Amino acid sequence: NYAILVEAPFAQVWEVVNDKNAAADFMEGVLFSEIKEQEDNEILLEQKTKVGGPKESYHYFVRHFLFRDERYVNFEHAGGELRDILGGWWFYEGKDPGTTVLVYSLHIDAAAFAPQFIVKRGMRKSIPRTMNQMRDESERRLAERNGEKNGEKNGEKNGEKNAEKEEAASE
Predict the structure, then answer these.
(1) In the Cβ-directed half-sphere of 143, how many Cα atoms lie within 13 Å?
(2) Per-residue model confidence as pLDDT tens digits over 53-78
(3) Which of 79, 103, 130, 167 has the most CB atoms lying inside 10 A of its own CB?
(4) What band does 151 get if pLDDT is binned at 50, 70 and 90?
């Protein structure tokens, strides 16, 4: 299991973790990600990820089970080039208000493509990177939302101040 503190509330982190169609936009190793089916709390996801090594990338399907009220997501292999995928995301309130502790667990069996010791060695590098990308995207989206709210208010205030300055200059 891997964990990281995210300076964003649960709802924001949940949104990022479950933004499967946009994952390739903010996750370095994701080449393609698309929801193929969605019903209630279950998603069938098609992905292609870049992992390095002799294979370079893997194309596979993963079934996600979303439990928002309980604050976790489980996922499992549903087909493709890998033999098995199993894991989950868990969300806990951070010590400070508006923060979330995000926990990630992942098991991959690449079958003949890579022995388990090579997969685990690669995951020691890729999972912390994944966690950092999830944190960074959650915090970026939160800042963008807050900036839009503050920007509108500040823009109005600045616009009013500029109009006052122009009036004073013309007198």
Answers:
(1) 8
(2) 667 889 999 999 999 999 999 999 99
(3) 130
(4) low
Q: What is the pLDDT of residue 120?
A: 79
Question: What does the buried/exposed string (b/e) look like for 96-110 if buried means 16 or more CB atoms within 10 Å of the residue's CB?
Answer: eeebbbbbbebebeb
In three-state secondary structure terms, 18 is: coil
Which residue, chain included where needed, has tokens 């299991």?
1
Spell out a b/e string for 15-45, using b for 16 or more CB atoms within 10 Å of the CB, else e. Answer: ebbbbbeebbebbebbbebeeeeeeeeebbb
Point out the least confidently predicted range of 75-79, 99-103, 124-128.
124-128
Answer for the pair 57, 49: CB distance below 8 angstroms, yes or no. Answer: yes
Q: How many angstroms separate the first and last alpha carbons of the chain? A: 68
- Rg from Cα positions in the chain: 21
